[in-house]
Amino acid sequence: MADKRDFYEVLGVQKGASDDEIKKAYRKKAKQYHPDLNPGDKEAEANFKEVNEAYEVLSDEQKKARYDQYGHAGVDPNFGAGGGYGGGFSDMDFDLGDIFSSFFGGGGGRRSNPNAPRHGGDVAASVVLSFEESARGAKKQVEISVVEACDECGGSGAEKGTSPKTCPNCGGSGQVRRQQRTPFGVMQTQAACDRCRGTGRIIEKPCKTCGGSGRVTARRTVGINIPAGIDDGQTIIVRGKGNAGQNGGAAGDLQVRVSVRPHPIFERHGNDIVCDLPLTFTQAALGAEIDVPTLDGRVPFTIKEGTQPGELLRIKGKGFPDVQGRRMGDLIFRVVLEVPKNLSHEQKELLKKFDGSTSDKNYQKRKSFFDKIKTMFKDD
Predict the structure, then answer these.
(1) How far apart are alpha carbons 298 and 275 in whole angstroms?
(2) Distance in angstroms (rounded) separating the CA atoms of residues 342 and 347
(3) Higher pLDDT, 66 or 135
(4) Nearest to 327 by CA among 271, 264, 286
């Protein structure tokens, strides 16, 4: 663990980057290394986990502050001792009050009870959706690694038929006080008990399955209900599906980050769907009845006579539903006038004849434009 990369380096941002910059960098890296886009690539899988680990710290204000001040040791108490993030961030027994009191003595800092219930850590996962699935909702499954109570010992850490004993050295508090004479007088410090390593318990016969930790890592498949209208980059929280708590504490949550694949013709703007609609000159000038695409299939649509390039044509209620249950978005067509190419001689002559038959009254924008030019240069 001593060679763990800097989290800012992992995401490719500078220290002091804003929340938006961190989020944008995470989404870019997560898409780059996502297992669905790199099947069978172990290096990409490792990078994906590293990116999620970095974002979980830097996106949390408190964890980020500890990381900025203390580095990896501030968010991982096992850093440098061969440990990892195993139990999740919420499982860390990290107390700044104890650190300050160990330097300055006294009992003013908050003391944590090693046997008190502790909430399990959250687990991060991701899911990739199609454009249609994000609009309509879907049922998905994600595979995660979670920390659970060991079935063999029931989470006690002691071999079946035995139980942990209260540490005689610290009386079960997990802390011991020491006094040291210094030039400034007698200084009192408090530190984790060496005998029980701060747990307040002694396990004489550790469970062979979990090695005395009372916890094991397992792979689990969790079903996720994706709500209709979910957007790219949003997170779904599944309560109680994270790492198991300790000493009767509640389990953590599963946080599923959503990525949505781009659609070949549709774009999402809020809850609206926008689509370019190519029209011929004749369709725009004379009007037409055409079929247009929607998420529910093709539907008939009327193009009005004199439709202009860039005009926005709207179908109400054919966009995305709002996740919060408010109004449906609209489907908006952006008119693109396509100029014909590769015209035959006969077609060109017909167009010249048509152009010669028109006047300024047929082209209001053109007339207005040249009238303004005449006003600008009337003295020339």
Answers:
(1) 13
(2) 10
(3) 135
(4) 271
